[in-house]
Amino acid sequence: MEGSKNTTGTILEEGESSTASQESPSQRRIFKVIVLGDSNVGKTCLTIRFCGGDFPQKPEATIGVDFRDKDVTVDGESIKLQLWDTAGQERFRKSMVQHYYRNVHAVIFVYDVTKLSSFENLPTWVDECDRHSLSSNVPRVLVANKCDITDRRVVSTNMGQKFAEHNDMPFFETSAKSSEVGESVSNIFLYIAKKLKAQRPHLHLRAGFGGISGSGRTSVRKLRLKSSGLRGFEPEKTPKSKCAGGCFS
Amino acid sequence: MSTNNKAHNFHEEDKDQPPGFHRNNASGFELHKRAKLVAIHKALQSDPVDVASLRKYAISKGGLLTDEIRRKAWPKLLNVNPFESIAKDANIKEHRDYDQVVLDVNRSLKRFPPGMKDDEREVLQDQLVEVIVRVLCENNQLHYYQGYHDICVTFQLVVGKEATVSLVNKLSTHHLRDFMDSTMDRTKHMLNYLLPIINKSKPALHDFLQRSEVGTVFALAWLITWYGHVLNSFRSIVRLYDFFLACHPLMPVYLAAAIVLYREEDIMQCECDMPFVHSLLSKIPQNLPLEKLIVDAGDLFVQYQPSQLAKEARLYYKESTSLTTYQSLEESSRIQRPDSVLRRLTRRGQGHASAAGRPQDSNRVIKVAVWAISMGIGAAALTVLNNALEFWG
Ligand SMILES: Nc1nc2c(ncn2[C@@H]2O[C@H](COP(=O)(O)OP(=O)(O)O)[C@@H](O)[C@H]2O)c(=O)[nH]1
Ligand SMILES: [Mg+2]
C-alpha cells in the first residue's frame, strides 16, 4: 500500500485494526483526529482512502458524524488513529458535532482546489476550532484536495500555502482520487501520527486530554516541522510526478 | 403521468420482501397477503376513504404491500390531494439552499435502482432537486438539511415527481418539521427520547451506553432520513415509510430503540468507549428482522409513551444543551469530566422501571393505530417538544 513504501523508513502502515502490535489494545495509544471543511470537498473520500479503501465511486453526503479508524506503526510503536469525518453543513456542526470536538488530538482542514468558497470559508473553520478552545498544541494541518483536477482549478498552491503559513500549519496538496498527484493521502495521515507521537512521548491519552500547557506555540511548531524532515511547506513543483520511494525525504 | 408509470417500474415488487418475512412459510404469507390486499382495496374504495383502517394496515405486518397501493394510500395517510400541487417557483436557483441540495442530490446515486441508465437517473436527479427546492420555496421558514433528500427520493421513486411535491410539502410541515428549523436543537431533543426508552426496557444496556458516552448521534441519520440513508433495500425503506406515515413523529426514535435493544449482545461485548460503540451502532445491519422490530417499536411506544418519557428526555435535553454551551463546560471539565457530573444529574430520581406487562399481541397494532388516529397527523411533535409535559395525560 501507499504508506508502507519507503517513506522515512520509520513509518509503517499496519492495515486496519490489525493485531501486529505487541502492546495490548488497552495500552495502545489512541489519537483522535477530526476532519473539517465545507461540504463536498472530499473529507469522506480522504478518510476512506486512508483507512485502506479505494476511492469511493458513489460517496454519499455525510450525515452527522462518521467514524473510521486505522492502526499505524510509528517508530515501532503501534498507534490507533481515530478519524471523525464530519458533515459539512453548518446546522450539523452547530448542534451535533460539538460533542466530537472534545478530546481531539489533531485537526485536518480540507478545501477543494476547484471551489473557491471552500477555501474562503477556511477562517470560519479555524475560528470554530479556536472557539472550542482546543489546546494550541493540537496539531492542525491544511489539505488542498482534488488536485487531480487541473482544468477547473481555482485555488493556487500559493494561496493555500499562504493561508497555511499564516495560520501556522503544514500544508499538503493531494487527491483522494488519484495517487499520481501531490502528497499521498496516507502520508498526510502518517505525518500527523508521527507528529502526535513525537509531541506526546509518554502521555496516557485515554485518561482524557486537556491539552498540554501551550507556550511558545509558533516556535515549537516550526521547530518540529523542520526537525521532522517532512515536507510540509514545500510548494508542489512537479504535481504530475509520483514521488517514488521517498516522499518525505 | 409518465413519471408515475416510470416510478412504478423502478423496483420489482414482492420479490424482494423486507427481511423478517418468513419466506419458508410462503403459503401462509401468500394467504395473509391476499387477504390484506383485498382489505386495503376495500378501505381505499370506501367513501370517504377509510383512513383509520389504512393506518392499521400500514402498521401491521408487511405494511401497504405494493407501491401501487402506496401511491393511493400515502396521500390519504397524509390527508393531501396529490393532484393539487404547489406552484412552480421560477427561481429555484436563487434559494439559499439550492447549492447544497444539488451537491447532495448529485451524490445520491446509491438511492436509485442499480440497473438504471445514467441519463435516466440524471433526469430524475434534476427533478429531485426541483421537488426539494420547490417545497423549500413554498415554506420559507423551512431549512434544508442533508438527509432531507434521502426522504424525498423515496417518495419520488414511489409516487412520482408531482405527487412527491404535495406529499413532502405536507410532511415537511408536520413529521419532519423539527428537523427543518434553522438549528438542529429540536432534532437533538427528539433523539433525547432514545436513551430513556432503552433505560425503561433494559437498564443495564442503558448504563453501558451512558458509560461509553456514545451519545445519540449514531441514530441521527436514522431519524432524519427515516432510515432511507442507512438501509440498502428499497423494499425495507418503503415498508418503514408505511409505518412512519401512520404513526407519531417520534416513532423513528422508538424504532431506533428497538434496534439498539435487539443488538444488546453485540453492544455489550463492545469496548465501552464512544468510538467503538458509535462505530458499531451507526453501522446498521442490513439483515434486521424488520417486521419484528416494527412490532417491538410499537410495543415500546404503547408501554412508554412520549408523555411519560418527556420529563427524562428533557433532562437529557439539558444535558445536551450543556454540552453545546461548551464554555461553562470547559470550566467544569477542569475539575472533573463533564459527563460524570451530568450522568449523576440524570441518574437522580430516575428509578429503573420494573418491566411492565407487555400488551396483548392482538391489541398491539390496534393500540398503536388507535393512538395514531386520535393524534391525527403531525402537530404531535411540535406539541410534545414545545410544551405539554403531560400531553397525553
Ligand atoms: N476529482 C476528484 N474528486 C473528488 C476527490 N475527492 C472527492 N471527490 C469527489 O467530490 C465529491 C465529494 O466528496 P466527499 O468525500 O463526499 O466530500 P465531503 O462532503 O467533504 O465528505 C464526490 O463526488 C467525490 O467523488 C478528488 O480528490 N478528486
Ligand atoms: Mg462527507
TrEMBL record, chain A:
Cross-referenced InterPro entries: P-loop_NTPase, Rab33A/B, Small_GTP-bd, Small_GTPase
UniProt-listed SUPFAM superfamilies: P-loop containing nucleoside triphosphate hydrolases (SSF52540)
GO cellular component terms listed in the entry, alphabetical order: endomembrane system
UniProt key word Nucleotide-binding: yes
Predominant location category: membrane
SMART domains: RAB, RAN, RAS, RHO
Residue ranges, compositional bias (Polar residues): 1-10
Region Disordered: start-end pairs: 1-24
Record membrane topology: Lipid-anchor
Subcellular location as annotated: Endomembrane system
GO molecular function: GTP binding; GTPase activity
Keyword entries, A-Z: GTP-binding, Lipoprotein, Membrane, Nucleotide-binding, Prenylation
One GO-annotated biological process of the protein: Rab protein signal transduction
Membership in a protein family: Belongs to the small GTPase superfamily. Rab family.
NCBIfam families noted in UniProt: small_GTP
Name of the protein in question: Putative Ras-related protein Rab-33 isoform X1
Native source organism of the sequence: Stichopus japonicus (Sea cucumber)
From TrEMBL, chain B:
Ranges for region Disordered: 1-25
Transmembrane segments: 208-228, 240-262, 368-389
Matches recorded under Pfam families: RabGAP-TBC
Primary localization: membrane
BP-aspect Gene Ontology terms: endoplasmic reticulum to Golgi vesicle-mediated transport; Golgi organization; vesicle organization
All copies of domain Rab-GAP TBC, residue ranges: 64-248
Record's keyword annotation contains Lipoprotein: no
Places the protein is found: Membrane
Keywords from the UniProt entry: GTPase activation, Membrane, Transmembrane, Transmembrane helix
GO CC, one annotated term: endoplasmic reticulum membrane
UniProt keyword Transmembrane present: yes
GO molecular function per UniProt: GTPase activator activity
Topology relative to the membrane: Multi-pass membrane protein
Protein name, as recorded: TBC1 domain family member 20
